[in-house]
Design goal:
It is built from 30 helices and 18 strands. With 766 residues, the chain is an alpha+beta fold. The protein folds into 4 domains: 88 residues, no CATH class; 242 residues, no CATH class; 242 residues, Rossmann fold (3-Layer(aba) Sandwich); 111 residues, Alpha-Beta Plaits (2-Layer Sandwich), CATH 3.30.70. The strands form 5 sheets. The chain has a 6-stranded mixed β-sheet, sandwiched between helices. A 4-stranded antiparallel β-sheet has the order 6-5-8-9. It has a 4-stranded antiparallel β-sheet with strand order 16-17-15-18. The longest helix has 29 residues. It is elongated.
Length: 766
């Protein structure tokens, strides 16, 4: 083929070193043999196209089977030039129709690469998707359990007598059920789609894989749950675990990678520690087990000769078969049998569960009561697991018999009585609180500062106090919801420090938070609590209906609790606290959010429940405290200020009787003088000058003065007697005149006893 002289000069110039450096390209000489018909009588046109090929794609960096690159732009340029030449020549020849060249091309066929000829995508990437099955079980269980912990539902179950062992077992069984369902769905789907790994593998093999890996995932979920304190942290841990699992699965997707890195016996000895670390991850075990199955039942690439080996039916003996072999790189491998891997997974799961139990006991956020770091060395711990109760420790005074500033004499007497009874006899028929205290760290906040109280069987102890006075803390300490830091308490002779699980079995509680599941109905809750407390009533359904009727929830018995109002949820909690015939019931503001009718219904139920039980109730409602309490304690800043019956506290801390009078506002000052003359012991309390209202307090020991006054007024109003009546003969002439003037000036008179609110203010205001 001849080359035009100009093109030859350009070509030669481009081969010079200077031009190559300037253009940054590499040129090659090449010859293309070709054959064409040459006719001298015809005009033949030759041309060459020079262009930069340095940025063209190179087949070397692509798949081995792909032919050399094709430049579509060059072909389009060549076709355009040919058509242009034809058009010029056709016009010169005077042709009416210009011929055009249409270009089409096709790559030559090639033999498929043997490395990909027998590839099965389910084998190559299946573990990345199948691992989602046990991870789904992890996500469901972990999210639900973390939600229960964040909403204090688990603690609520513990406080009604549900053991931690029963709680964990229930979730383990739930996880097993989810694992079985997911394994069936996965196997059915793979079998219906005709994937060879599912067609050649029995169901029990995949079930074992999903089961043991799910067990490990559940163990990790339980372990992580003992470390979290809120749901946001739970979400972070969950997503982190899933992300790490997916990355590990992607890295070990190819069986060759897993076997060469972790089961290569010619690797340095120290690399075995990497295998120990990876054995803590479920995704590592899953990819290994999945590879064990696929390299038997599916077409796979042989490590020895890089040839595709067809799969076969799975045999039972394959569970126990150890695989030996050699890689193409001459290093050897030994693959442990699938059975050994499953046993190893169960051992790792047991390790996670052991740590979960340990951290569950030493962190107070999990059970409310934290044990020491070496609790497992104590015989009492192991004896309690089999139901053997150990003797409670003898109470030791720790400097708590100390006077409290601003406490009333009733609180002093109560403290001395409790200490004396505790030192004489630790067995009590009721609740005895001995120096109970709670200090929150790290700010050293004393929520409760040594409380001494005793409540006998058949009594209700009402606890009043400002917000933050320590009422809820006291209830939480008695129920074991928080860890005490000082003193102790005994409930029917059992210590809340050592016998808490036994106490909870016979305890009812209406906590500040409602222990309710939104998905369950009222009747479902009654049945659930009865089963947890192992209660079997002769006619359980009738008992449930009667109890719901007593709290006004009978019409909503089959309604999901999630649809209840706040007041209805509190009534539900009150009803649940009575299940199991508990000997002690703790109630933290039980009537909060209730309407007057519902509140009265709950009060009637509480009155019924007093017989044979001890009830302790916190409240802000003065009427509720006065009506229900047999004994009343007022807390302020974590200390008991006064203790006694409502009437005793009124007599001791109140102002006696209160006299209210109404007169014309211009006569207020005159009425003050006259009333003081008639009742010298009266103490002025308050006055409303605009309405002519006056209020006086009369001490209890001067009640005779008050009775004589109202006897005289009542007699005059009924019979219209004169000052010469016998009732007036006890007064001097000046007093009788003052009374007559007072009767003419006062339009209304009322008398009442000191209110509990005044007692509360007197006890807490210092």
């Amino acid at each position: 083929m001849e080359i035009d002289s100009i093109n030859r000069d350009m070509y030669n110039h481009s081969l010079t070193k200077e031009e190559r450096d300037k253009l940054g390209k590499q040129s090659f000489d090449f010859y293309m043999p070709c054959k064409f018909d040459y006719h001298p009588e015809r005009e033949t046109i030759f041309y060459s196209v020079l262009y930069n090929m340095s940025l063209q794609e190179n087949a070397f960096f692509k798949a081995f089977s792909e032919p050399f690159w094709k430049d579509n732009n060059l072909l389009a340029l060549k076709n355009s030039l040919d058509n242009s030449v034809l058009e010029i020549k056709a016009r010169q020849a005077g042709m009416s129709e210009v011929p055009k060249i249409e270009l089409s091309y096709q790559a030559y066929p090639y033999v498929p690469d043997r490395l990909y000829q027998g590839a099965d995508p389910v084998v190559a990437t299946g573990s990345f998707y199948v691992v989602l099955v046990p991870l789904t079980v992890f996500m469901i269980i972990f999210e639900e359990m973390s939600r229960e912990k964040a909403m204090n539902l688990r603690m609520g179950l513990l406080m009604i007598g549900c053991s931690s062992l029963a709680y964990w077992i229930s979730w383990i069984l739930t996880g097993f059920a989810f694992s079985a369902i997911m394994a069936c769905l996965m196997y059915s789907t793979g079998y219906l789609f005709g994937f060879s790994v599912f067609l050649n593998t029995p169901f029990y093999v995949f079930f074992i894989i999903i089961f043991v890996v799910s067990v490990l995932n559940l163990a990790i979920a339980f372990f992580l749950l003992t470390l979290i304190h809120n749901q946001s942290t739970a979400y972070t841990m969950s997503y982190t675990f899933i992300l790490v699992s997916m990355i590990t699965t992607m890295a070990l997707l190819d069986a060759a990678v897993t076997y060469k890195l972790f089961f290569n016996i010619d690797m340095p000895q120290w690399t075995i520690y990497f295998r120990y670390v990876f054995q803590l991850f479920p995704s590592f075990h899953f990819t290994k087990l999945y590879s064990d199955v696929t390299r038997v039942t599916s077409s796979h690439l042989s490590f020895e000769g890089m040839l595709w080996v067809p799969g076969r039916k799975w045999e039972y003996s394959d569970l126990f078969r150890t695989t030996h072999g050699q890689f193409m790189t001459k290093d050897r491998y030994v693959i442990p049998p699938m059975y050994d891997t499953c046993v190893q997974i169960l051992w790792v799961s047991l390790g996670y569960l052991t740590f979960a139990i340990y951290f569950d006991n030493i962190f107070a956020e999990n059970r409310g009561q934290a044990k020491g770091y070496l609790f497992f060395l104590s015989p009492s711990y192991w004896l309690s697991l089999i139901g053997i109760k150990t003797n409670s420790r003898v109470y030791q005074k720790r400097g708590v018999d100390k006077a409290v500033p601003n406490e009333h004499q009733t609180a002093v007497e109560e403290r001395k009585h409790v200490l004396n009874e505790e030192l004489i006899n630790q067995q009590c028929q009721g609740v005895r609180i001995v120096g109970l205290g709670k200090t929150y760290q790290p700010k050293n906040v004393q929520a409760l500062k040594g409380v001494y109280l005793e409540v006998s069987e058949g009594e209700l102890l009402g606890i009043m106090g400002h917000n933050g006075a320590g009422k809820t803390t006291l209830i939480n300490l008695l129920s074991g919801f928080v860890q005490l830091t000082q003193g102790t308490a005994r409930i029917f002779g059992l210590s809340i420090e050592q016998d808490l699980e036994h106490i909870r079995r016979n305890m009812g509680i209406v906590s500040q938070f409602d222990v309710l599941w939104d998905e369950l109905t009222a009747l479902d809750h009654m049945l659930l609590f009865s089963l947890i407390k192992r209660v079997h009533y002769p006619n359980m359904e009738q008992f449930f209906i009667r109890r719901l009727k007593e709290v006004g929830l009978l019409d909503s018995a089959n309604l999901q609790v999630g649809k209840y109002s706040g007041g209805m949820r509190r009534r539900m909690s009150v009803a649940l606290s009575t299940i199991g015939d508990p000997n002690v019931i703790l109630m933290d503001e039980p009537t909060t959010g209730m309407d007057p009718v519902s509140r009265r219904q709950v009060w009637d139920l509480i009155q019924q429940m007093k017989k044979g039980r001890v009830l302790i109730m916190t409240t802000h409602a003065m009427e509720e405290a006065e009506l229900l309490s047999d004994k009343l304690a007022v807390l302020n800043q974590g200390e008991v200020r006064c203790v006694g019956t409502p009437l005793q506290l009124k007599n001791l801390l109140g102002k006696g009787y209160r006299v209210s009078m109404v007169c014309e506002k211009q006569e207020v000052e005159r009425v003050k003088v006259l009333f003081k003359r008639v009742v010298p012991s009266a103490e002025f309390y308050e006055s409303s000058g605009d309405s002519g209202s006056l209020v006086y307090n009369v001490p209890l020991d001067k009640v005779r003065e008050l009775s004589n006054v109202f006897k005289l007024i009542d007699t005059h109003n009924q019979r219209g007697v004169t000052p010469d009546d016998e009732a007036e003969k006890t007064f001097s002439l000046e007093d009788r005149q003052a009374l007559q003037s007072l009767k003419s000036l006062v339009s209304d008179v009322g008398v009442s006893q000191t209110t509990l609110e005044e007692v509360f203010m007197a006890a807490t205001t210092h």
